[in-house]
Amino acid sequence: MGFCDKSCREFIAELASKAPVPGGGGTSALVGAIGTALGNMVGSLTVGKKKYADVEGEIIALMEKANKLMDELMVLVDRDAEVFEPLSKAYGMPKDTEEQKAEKDRVMEKCLRDACSVPLEIMEKCCEAIELQKEFAAKGSALAISDAGVGVAFCKAALQGASLNVFINTNSMKDRDYAEKLNARATEMLDKYTALADDVFSGVYNRLKK
Predict the structure, then answer these.
(1) For the chain, does the N or the C end have fewer beta carbons within 10 angstroms?
(2) Which long-range contacts (CB under 8 A, 24 or more apart) does 110-114 make?
C-alpha cells in the first residue's frame, strides 16, 4: 500500500515515528497536492455560475491542469520514499577499509543524486501550482477566494519544504559542481515563486480585509 492510500491518521502516525519514510519530501508533495486541490475547489465553485460565464472556459482549463498536478504530486509522495530508503541504508555501509570507503562513497553519491531528483520535481510541480492559484484567485468565485489563499500558502510551504530536502542532500555530495547546479536551480525556484505566492496571498488577504 502506498502512503497516499493510507488514512490521514495512519500517514501521520508513520510520519511521527522513527521510520525513515515518509519524511519531509513526501509530506511536501502531499501538502502541495492539498494546496492544488483547494485551487480546484475554487474552480468547482465557479463553473456553472452565470456571474462567471465569461471565464468558465478558462476555469475549466485551469482545473484540468490542476487535476494533472494533483495526480503527479500524489505519485511523488511515494517516489520520494522510494529514492530515500536506499540513501538511508547507504549511510550505514561499513567504511573500515579503503575499499569499503570507496564503495560507500560511490553508492552514496548515486543515492544522493536520486534523493535530490524527486524533491526538485516536487518543487517544479509546486511552482506550476502557484501559477494556477494566481489564476484561480483572480478569476474564480469571490465566495471561495479564501480557499485560493489557503491553497497558495500550502503550495508555497510545499515548495520551501521540498527545497530543504534538496539542500540537505547536496550538502553531502562530493561532486560540488553538480551539487551547486542543483542548488542554483532550487534557489531560482524559491526566489521567484515564494515571491509570487506571497503576492497572491496578499491579494487575497487585502480583498478579505477591505
Answers:
(1) C
(2) 111/83, 111/86, 111/87, 112/87, 112/169, 112/170, 112/172, 112/173, 113/173, 113/178, 114/83, 114/86, 114/87
Write out the three cell numbers for 41: 475547489
d(CA 118, CA 35): 18
Judge whether 117 and 179 are in contact, CB under 8 Å: no
Alpha-carbon distance 32 to 78, whole Å?
Answer: 14
- How many angstroms separate the CA atoms of 135 and 71, rounded? 20
* Highest CATH level, class, for 24-205: mainly alpha
pLDDT at 93: 86
**pTM for the structure as a whole:** 0.93
Burial of 141 (0-12, 13-18, 19+ CB in 10 A): buried
Q: How confident is the model at residue 77 (pLDDT cuts 50, 70, 90)?
A: very high
Amino acid of residue 92: G
